[in-house]
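Page header: ASSEMBLY MODEL / three components / 1413 residues total.
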Amino acid sequence: MKVENMSLHPLGTASAPVPELLCIFGTGDLGRSLGLRLLQSGYRVVYGSRRPNSCGPLPEGAQVTSHEAAAQLADLVFICVHREHYGFLETLAPHLQGKVLVDLSNNLKKGIYPEANAAYLQRLVPGAAVVKGLNTLSAWALQNGLLAGKQVYLCGNSAEAKQTVAEMATKLGLTVLDRGSLSAARELEDFPLQLFPEWRLPLCVAAGLLAFFYFYLLIRDVIYAYVEQGKDISFRIIVTLANKVFPIVSLIMLSLCYLPGVIAAFLQLYRGTKYRRFPDWLDRWMLCRKQMGLVALALAFLHAIYTFIIPLRYNVRHKLISLVVDEMKRNKTTPFYFDNTEAWGTDAFFALGILGFFLYVLLGLTSLPSVGGTLSWREFSFVQSKLGHLTLCICTAHGYLYGWDRFIRVSTYKWYTPPGYMLCLIVPSVVLVLKALILLPCVDRALTRIRQGWERTPPEPELGMNKATNL
Amino acid sequence: MKVENMSLHPLGTASAPVPELLCIFGTGDLGRSLGLRLLQSGYRVVYGSRRPNSCGPLPEGAQVTSHEAAAQLADLVFICVHREHYGFLETLAPHLQGKVLVDLSNNLKKGIYPEANAAYLQRLVPGAAVVKGLNTLSAWALQNGLLAGKQVYLCGNSAEAKQTVAEMATKLGLTVLDRGSLSAARELEDFPLQLFPEWRLPLCVAAGLLAFFYFYLLIRDVIYAYVEQGKDISFRIIVTLANKVFPIVSLIMLSLCYLPGVIAAFLQLYRGTKYRRFPDWLDRWMLCRKQMGLVALALAFLHAIYTFIIPLRYNVRHKLISLVVDEMKRNKTTPFYFDNTEAWGTDAFFALGILGFFLYVLLGLTSLPSVGGTLSWREFSFVQSKLGHLTLCICTAHGYLYGWDRFIRVSTYKWYTPPGYMLCLIVPSVVLVLKALILLPCVDRALTRIRQGWERTPPEPELGMNKATNL
Amino acid sequence: MKVENMSLHPLGTASAPVPELLCIFGTGDLGRSLGLRLLQSGYRVVYGSRRPNSCGPLPEGAQVTSHEAAAQLADLVFICVHREHYGFLETLAPHLQGKVLVDLSNNLKKGIYPEANAAYLQRLVPGAAVVKGLNTLSAWALQNGLLAGKQVYLCGNSAEAKQTVAEMATKLGLTVLDRGSLSAARELEDFPLQLFPEWRLPLCVAAGLLAFFYFYLLIRDVIYAYVEQGKDISFRIIVTLANKVFPIVSLIMLSLCYLPGVIAAFLQLYRGTKYRRFPDWLDRWMLCRKQMGLVALALAFLHAIYTFIIPLRYNVRHKLISLVVDEMKRNKTTPFYFDNTEAWGTDAFFALGILGFFLYVLLGLTSLPSVGGTLSWREFSFVQSKLGHLTLCICTAHGYLYGWDRFIRVSTYKWYTPPGYMLCLIVPSVVLVLKALILLPCVDRALTRIRQGWERTPPEPELGMNKATNL
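Prediction written out in full:
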């Protein structure tokens, strides 16, 4: 009965169906998309514009008026204007007194202004509560409704203002994270300007290794042939050398992906505790393992395609025809000799390569956010640790089989240098041997205990002391 | 103290632990999955069924009774019944007075009924508040808990009813978007019946280009050889022609993917403002760029596989053997001639193709929703704009190298027509030249200013006028 | 007016900006990451530690103190400690009276303890309200903010405690599902220990088929050649046999993926209703169709790479050279004969294989969670049903073309056994024929009616009876 009475009350009925009115300054792409989205989520929207009568197409259902009028209608104002045009807000300051201003602006480059856009805005309009946030959303994502579950950051000096904005963002389907006071605004403004920060180290390492091995093989192959044998095989630098360098660097990158885990395990064993922090370089290395693995996969992918294309190459076909012609001249009666060992060797080499590439791709697929996200903890660790080490093992065997019987031939060591595939087998072999050591039952048991919190030198005394202090 | 008092109050304690009871009409797949989900989210569920005693397996913990009894127990009723069976609801209307009815129904085809299912339901039960929504959820997704963060639409005439349903949906992990009154119900019912609407245009363009180039090459290659040389090379229409047509159309589709961006930039430069709307055709074109790129990737993928398979083909092996046999007959003493330029040319051609394909795949990967969603604005624009144009550049160079020295040979122009690869280089070359023009410092600066809101003809007067009006 | 009064009230202003304080026991990886996350979401955090003065790096802004002191400060305590160290909680029990304890612990293996960790915790601290949950989150995901929209489970005996935790989790961006009382704790603790449960059946079937066909072909190919012809072709067991077995099993797995759907349709037709449950084996089979399809795709991928590598193999090159040498010796004047039928046959065979593989990959892509999630119901059913059956059809045709004219040759049936590719065509052919039957207009119409709820034997009487009872 009471509830029914309430719903008959004029204020009650009015407040329930009439949705909140929000104001947007700026009728550009972002302003329009945001307005569309707010309307779809059940809000009413009023635009503040320089020229309310000719500001282009706006979402259906939105009002448009001057900045002053719009600001007076709503408590929450979205600033979808470039920082360069913030000037007019200073004259509007009296109208914005006590309002919540959401600064969605981004800059084109880092560090072109001494203060963050939001801090500048707060200085222009000191009487308003400025909240920086939602600036990681693109107009495109807003328009196409790709917000569900997306994470956005907020910061601001007023907790109530942040709360208001957070509730609005939640209604839009966003997940909100509070990053503290307005001093974090610069950090938030730098988010959309990031350019693959976690990819830099892996890409640098890969580029360095590629350059080194490319020049090393260039000297050993092309220049050696030119100097010692007077042959011009410079055409090799495009495909042949690339197809040697890519697998070499891919294998090294894959092993670098598993090396820090092994080092960390030995460090924990040595220290007898897991509670001491790893050195900085190791932490940074461990954080970019996924990217290292993906760079390795990309190089393996290139290696695979380069390999598939081999029989189509002019020099390969030329060599095959020369071989037949030579064979015909030399030997006209006995059948062409079939080397069974060679057949076994090359087939095993190819089979290992294919299997390794297959596992590589499998690892890459599980690193897709949407696939990895569906895996349980044990599944993820099974794939990334067990399957990963198996991949490394198979690819290393593929490398050893490539060497085959060439390891002991003197002709392999041109100018007394080892060939590239030998150099690239060092790191993976070390990683595999160390990993095998860790898997020994006695070592494994000690490590498991340490990872569950056991410590070789128990810190009992201090614990007692603290207890005493507290009691 | 006060809080504790309240929690001792019988009503308070009762309301906290006893969860809300919801009613579901229909015990089919959808009804069962929805019930399971509601139970998992902490609701109680009662089913209304034609035959409460033999309605098959229901989720554990749910009650089942007749439609009338179930409707009386709950305030919210889900209608998980096909529209064809809505008839019984008319007789139930008195029992549904004042209830919220959620219509989850879909049809098998568009436009088989004059009014939306939800509108029909509202007509049958005028005393209830009908809310259309959640109909985009499949029974399968409900059962397997794949709802987290998923977006659903609601519409209905009662704001309170929509609010109730929205809260329930939020508890299920869904993100709710309000689409307005019940008149939007038809639109919501058409969502699950969409069949790749945004793919239609790119697929039509691709199909048209494929058909055109296929017949063009059929005439130039197969029919020309038959008419002019009397040779039957009809076997080529399966693989050889396909492997010419796919790369041609792929390259054109990729350039069509970047052409609208270039056109838009020139249009903005010409108009001197970004505030005027693009023509409709350009808007529509820009909205399907992603799909165009993916179609281009699919064709490039087919081209790659067709190429890998070449050495296995009967006619290729036959040609190779014939070549050797001819070589043997002609020349028995001097070694088979090695053309260094040819080796460089083909190797460069293959290397560009491989690199282009690799970048193609990279672009495709970042267009996966889960990968693209983790990129910042600058990363996304780097990948789609810089890497995209680089891909186009490399693939165009791959095409030019294919032509090689054939551009100036007369024998290339059979029946006075240019070969396919020449035709396919036109659009990419135009796009690349226009893009290079835009990247000139002076043009780039003007464009950046325009995109930041600068206008060649400032609309000052109007702004002043508005201000005057408001003050 | 009243509202403004309240916000001026000292308690009101104080409560708004001071965020809630939560307590975390345990300063390991999980504890640290959870604390960081809570701080980012606007909570205050206090750690309870054995050694508050030397517990390693903690997130900035968190306090740390002894367990007792920390417990007294907060109402909600997260237990981020291994079950092995729960002992100290018993002595803390008086301090934890009336608190909500969230048990996030997991075990290393299933079934090593007689009771669930959460049940053990409840027994140690009977006065607290234990909530099991959030244990599926990894420290890594917490730290990197990969929580948005992720689903977590809760269980516990106190509805209020669960509500408190659910609200906290929602603020973190998680989607919460209530799994009932604390008796479900064991189930929740087993979640992170799952190892691909839904992949077991498909992988077992695939492994069984692979083993069978491998040995079957080993006997027919290698052993037959050794026994009957005295030839040693044992090198074939690495690549040649694998490249026969993979496509065979891939095709069978793909058809097994569509067989249950066909069986289900016939069962529904036979029973004349969709309301009777399928037999258990059919249900289980239908639930792992996606995994079966992905295993089939993996094998098809291996088959493709094995095929691309063929021309590089030693024995293939050897065969080619022998062929040329033989040709030269035999025939020196007439040109090498070109078999047009053979050219058509092999080209068609390859084209079908490529197209089939392309569709396979397309099916695999749409089964990615992030891609499949964006498809409407009709799009999903179009891809999985129409495209899926087309793929099966094309791959089966690829198999038939491989057989070509060998089906009727006597030499094909070594030791009176049919070759592998014949055996593998049986199941796909049966599935395609049955599917074609279902697509006949009369059968299709009956099936559609049944799936919309029509029944051959209407259960009217019971419905009437129920109505009578209720009225």
